[in-house]
Here is the input.
Amino acid sequence: MSGWLFLVALLGGGWWGWRAWQAGPSEVSEQASKSPKGGGTAPAVVVSTVKPVVGDFPVVFEATGNVAALSTVDLRAQTTSTVKAVHVKEGDFVRAGQLLFSLDDRADRANVEKAKAQAARDQASLSDAQRQVQRSRELVAQGFLSKSAVDTTLTQAEALQAAVLAGQAALRAAEVALSYNTLRAPMDGRIGAITAQPGALVLANANATPMLTITRMNPVSINFTLPETLLQAVQARRAQGPVAVEALPAGSSEPVQGVLSFIDSTVDAAVGGVRSKAQFANSDLKLWPGQSSTVRVTVGVLPQAAQVPLASVVTGPAGMLVYVVDSDHKAQPRKVKLLAQSGTLAAVEGLKGDETVVLDGKQNLRPGSAVRDAASPPKP
Here is the structure.
């Protein structure tokens, strides 16, 4: 008799296993929830819920970019000399034309004075030659001098005229060399580290260490990569006017507003998109060159889209879904399609907007699970 009981139990267990395999895990879970151990009713799962919001949803692209200065200048000496004075300090903000360094200019000043003296001597010689030409012409007119003698005097005067021009050019060159001993800021910006101090020898060499670096801090740009899939949408928006870009610097909670200023002409396969830039006013210095920053670009708007917290969306093997609470206070899965996301919000397809969606506690749910909103008091 005991053998027959064992055989019946074995066949019954096999049938239940086959039924479970055919029904799938969701149906088994549903049956299990309907037939709890001991034959009682399963307790309601405590959850928090939200109502979808229906409205226009901005499609925002988010990427990480790097802040870059619009211009940076490495200041080097254009003449070999020693530093006489440094007129600025590290970290100073300077204006274009502001005096930065004075070099020892004694030798160049002497060369300027020498060139001036040479030019004056050549001018005097030229004046004398021009007077000789005039006298020679008068003597030729009176018949006391031959015409060839006048030609010789005229040739000497023309040679001295060329010498005067050469002397003037030499004087200008000496003055240019003298000006190299005064180094001024080529643009507005902030000074970095200063490597040349009074008494230091500086060389007129392009490979020499810069005496200092000036970085333009306002405005600045942020370089980022725009996915090629969004290129057409961004170009369409750009054709209608400036495209707003929002930046959130690392470590900051206040975004900075700017505009899209550049889209490269080719898709870069190495970065998987199009190199782009956004320009930002930076008078408050929230953006620092070299700093990483999150940029957000609004590439379009989804009209009248259902919006739910991204945390309410469950991703599984069958795709995305949310749990909707029905009129019997039971959780039912609803398949949705993610259209776009912005921050903690998601625009989805598959909801009308009048549903009650489970936000927290969904990990404890099965299809048909009884639920109770955490905001509602429990039934007695």
About this structure: Residues 129 and 157 are 5 Å apart (CA to CA). Residues 1-39 have pLDDT under 50 and may be disordered. The helical segments are 2-34, 106-142, 147-179, 231-240.
